[in-house]
Structure formats: structure tokens, C-alpha cells
Amino acid sequence: MELLANKLSDINFLTSSEESKKNYIRLVERTAKAITGSFIDSTSYSRLTPQELNKAIKVDDLLPAQGIGEDALFEKLEKQVLPNMLRTSSTDYMAHLHTLTLVETIASELIIATYNQSMDSWDQSPAATEIEVEVCKYLCKLYGYDEKAGACFTSGGSQSNMTALMMARDWFCNTKLNHDVKKKGLPANYSKFRFYTSEISHFSMDKSCHTFGLGYDAVVKVPVDSKMKMDMEALEKLVAKDVADGNIPVCCVVTIGTTDYGSIDDAAKARKICDKYGMWLHADGAYGSAVILSDTNSGRIGDLSVCDSITVDFHKMFLMPISCSAVLAKDDANFEAFELHADYLNREEDEEAGYTNLVGKSLQTTRRFDALKVWCAFQFHGKDGYSSIVNTTMDNAHYLYEQLKADSAFQVFIEPEISSVVFRLDASDDVNKIVRRKLIHEDGIVIGQTVYDGKTCLKFTLLNPLVTHEKLDSLMAEIKRLGAASK
Ligand SMILES: Cc1ncc(COP(=O)(O)O)c(C=O)c1O
Q: pLDDT digit string (tens) for 182-206?
């Protein structure tokens, strides 16, 4: 017993004891110092190759018989891990829809981890449940829904999209086929179900249909026009042809900010087609939904309240730590798809008495209190603060596009609608690929790479409001220099 007590005395928890509080504050400060100590210059990455990195982070024994203790652990973190972490707040990082984080939302993460609330039942997260409910109500209002609407936080855009598509499928089976899919499973004609989305939409639609047992063939890829937006005439033709062929149109997904180009599909036109054919309309706003907070550009995303459901990702353009996303439904009743009761968790009699158990709205059971980040960031920055963030990034994209267009060393194709710019050096695919790798390993600069019209392209995903026009000029100059050296 004594031996066990000795061992436990080395283990730290935050309790009401003064000693534990002192230790908590000390450890948080030590961690913050270790993190800030790794921000040694303005680059985003240590430049190591995958092989060098693997060697650098290796430890002899991941689970040693005796723990190594705090000092030795911090030594390893400070020498091996932190210096090699990607620094997303660097203006040299612009590869993906993955962002730097507002410092006050990092403070929210500390609160989230310390209290470790689980959002599945009220008795595991009383205040957190009430906050998530309030945040969800506000979000529904923000995107133009009325009080019939509802929302729930998820782990990210992929899960938000899957949740929405599952609601669409269940709604379709229940209301159009009079088939209780939740109880009976898929109907006999399920292989004819069709979900329409543009050919450049996010692959979470394919993953969702695979998960639902419908398969990739259920996803009809609609061509895009010259601005990379879903071609609405082509959508209508494809739906009409499917109906003529005996297939069953269930849902259309418009993308409000495609992953590569930030192009925005026309939700209003898609609504008309969905109404004509009795389909659900989902807006994947994982990227572009933040544009609603811009004082001058919010009209660009259209009126999303015409959609039956909307994905909003806060860990993209809203600059919050991963994970943080929400799925909104115009009619809260559609979340019924996830409602199940367990005696030990979410008793119906408690819910009737006003205890909200959010497990009934989610694919997850144990779930993080991510809504706190939205609550904190919205209060802290307000509409004004967010408007400047969004406008700055959109202005940067416009500036970069104009500079690239005017420079014969580059080719640029699509005028950005939000904050991503796809371009290439006027050189071979190989040169473009080599330049991106050299940027990482020679300069510590990380940018994106994709394919446009069969050609390898480079991509700047400009979510960082600290990026300036001068910074963009210097990056273009560096890309040209590396391109010339790589021919
Ligand atoms: C348009 C779009 N939808 C959905 C997703 C998936 O979001 P997540 O990575 O949060 O799952 C992404 C990711 O980049 C995206 O660009």
C-alpha cells in the first residue's frame, strides 16, 4: 500500500489543494515557455526531410519501465519535438485550409482540456451543454434560419458533411419512400440513390456514401464551369437523366468555397432544382462560411438559409484550434436521425424535466466542448474583428492574383473568390514540384500543390491575416529564383 501511495504522489492532477494549484500554474507556464522558446525565427518549419525528422523524434523506449519525470520529458520535448513542429502562425505557411490560431482560443483549449467536459449528457457538462446550445442557436440565426432550426458541434467538416448527408438520406426515406431507415436499414432500391456534388467538391461526400453502404457510385460528380463553380445546367440535366433512367435523386451538395480555389456554388439556383425534384440541399461551407462576417463581402456566399443544412468549420477561416466545426439543420427535427436512449446516459424523463443531453444530436458519444472556442472568440473579436480578418485575407488573394497575372514568369487561372490562389511557374510540372520541395527544405516555407487542367500547380491558401503585400512579393521572387535554379 505504501509503495502504491509513493508512486501516486508523483502523479499530477489539479484539485482544490493549494499545492496542486501551484503545480498546475507552474506546469502551464513551463509549457508556454517551452513553446515560445521554439519560435526562433519567422519560418514555418525546421527544414528537415522525412528521414531526418524520423531520426530526430525517435526515443529509445516509448514506455520505459520507470517514468523519466518532468525535467527529462521537457528536455526531449524542447530538443526533439517542438523545434520540428510546423508553426502555423508563420507567414511562410500557406499550404492548406489549416490555420494559425487566435491566442484567446488557445486559452479556451486549456479550459476545455482542464475541465474535460463531455458533451454527451448534461450531468457530464452542465454549463458546457447550455453554452453549446446557446452558440448553436446564435449560429442558426447568423445563417438566416428561424427558431425551428438546430445545430450540433462535430469533429470537423468531414463529420459535419456526413451528419448532414445522413439527415438527408433519412429525411428522404421517411418522407418520400415512407421507409423507416433507422429501424429497417436501407430500402431495397437503395443502390439507385443519387447524391449530386461538383467534381471538385470535398471527398467527404464519397466517404460518407461509402460509409452509408451506398458506395461511391451514388455520388454524381457535376462538371464545373470556367470559374470552378458547379454548372447548374449540367446539374439539372444529370438529375433529369437519372430520373429517366430510374435512379433516385436524394440530395445535392453545393460547396461554399472549394478546397483548392475557394469557388462558391450558387445555392439559390441549386435550391430551385432541388425543389423541382424533391431533393435535400446541403451547403458545405467548411471553408467559405466565415465570409458571412465580412462587412463588405458577405453577399459573395449567397443566402445559405435556402439550404436544408450547412457545414461551418471554425478550424479554418475562423482561426480556431482543431477540432471545431458545426452542422446546422433548417429543421431541428432532422437530428432525430441520431437520437437513441440508454438507461445510464440520457434518460427520457430527465430530458422532459429540462436536462438537455446532446448525445441525441451527434454521431459521437464522448465529445469535446469545442463550442467554448466560438463563444470566446465571438465575444472577444466581435463582428468587426472578424470582418477585418476575413477582408485582409481576401484582399491579399486579390493582390496576389493581380501580381501573378502581370508577371510572365507565372500562369494563373481562376480569379479568387475567397482567399486561395492557384498558379504555376511557366515551366514544366517537375520544376513546379521541385520548387515546392525546395521551399520546404531550403527555406522552411510551406505552400500548397495541386493540379489544374492536368498541370501541376502551386497554391497559396491565404488564411493568415499577418501576411502583407510585401511578403507576397518576396515569396513570388523566391519562387522565381528557385524555379530558375531548378531548370
Ligand atoms: C470544402 C471542404 N469541405 C470539407 C472539408 C473537410 O473538413 P475537415 O478537414 O475539417 O474534416 C474540407 C477540408 O479541407 C474542405 O475544404
A: 999 999 999 999 999 999 999 999 9
| Residue with CA nearest ligand 1 atom 4 | 157
In whole angstroms, give the CA distance from residue 247 to residue 230: 21
pLDDT at residue 2 is higher than 70: no
Q: What is the pLDDT of residues 250-267, one digit of tens each?
A: 999 999 999 999 999 999
Among 158, 163, 206, residue to substitute to test ligand 1 (most atoms within 8 Å of Cβ): 158
Mutation pick for ligand 1 pocket among 98, 155, 204 (CB with most ligand atoms within 8 Å): 204
Using a 10 angstrom Cβ sphere, with 0-12 exposed, 13-18 middle and 19 or more buried, the burial of residue 300 is middle
Arithmetic mean of pLDDT, 306-324: 98
Q: What is the pLDDT of residues 136-158, one digit of tens each?
A: 999 999 999 999 999 999 999 99
Cα of 263 vs centre of ligand 1, distance in Å, is 14
How many Cβ atoms from other residues are within 10 Å of residue 417's Cβ? Answer: 24
Strands 455-461 and 420-425: antiparallel
CA distance linking residue 250 with residue 415, whole number of Å = 32
**Ligand 1 lining (C-beta closer than 6 Å):** 97, 156-158, 161, 202, 204, 255, 258-259, 284, 286-287, 313, 325
Residue whose CA lies nearest to ligand 1 atom number 8: 157
**259 Cα: distance to centroid of ligand 1 (angstroms):** 7
Other Cβ atoms within 10 Å of 487 Cβ, number: 10
User: What integer best gives the mean pLDDT of the chain?
Assistant: 96
Compute the distance between CA of residue 150 and CA of residue 14 in angstroms, rounded to an integer.
Answer: 35
Q: Which of 202, 256, 309, 324 to mutate to test the pocket of ligand 1 (most atoms within 8 A of CB)?
A: 202
Rounded to two decimals, what is the model's pTM?
Answer: 0.97
Cα of 272 from ligand 1 centre, angstroms: 26
The region of weakest confidence among 9-13, 24-28, 331-335, 418-422 is 9-13
**Which of 409, 434, 406, 439 lies closest to 424 in space, CA to CA?**
409
The confidence score (pLDDT) of residue 341 equals 87
> Which domains does the chain carry?
13-42+46-84 (no CATH), 108-377 (3.40.640.10), 382-485 (3.90.1150.10)
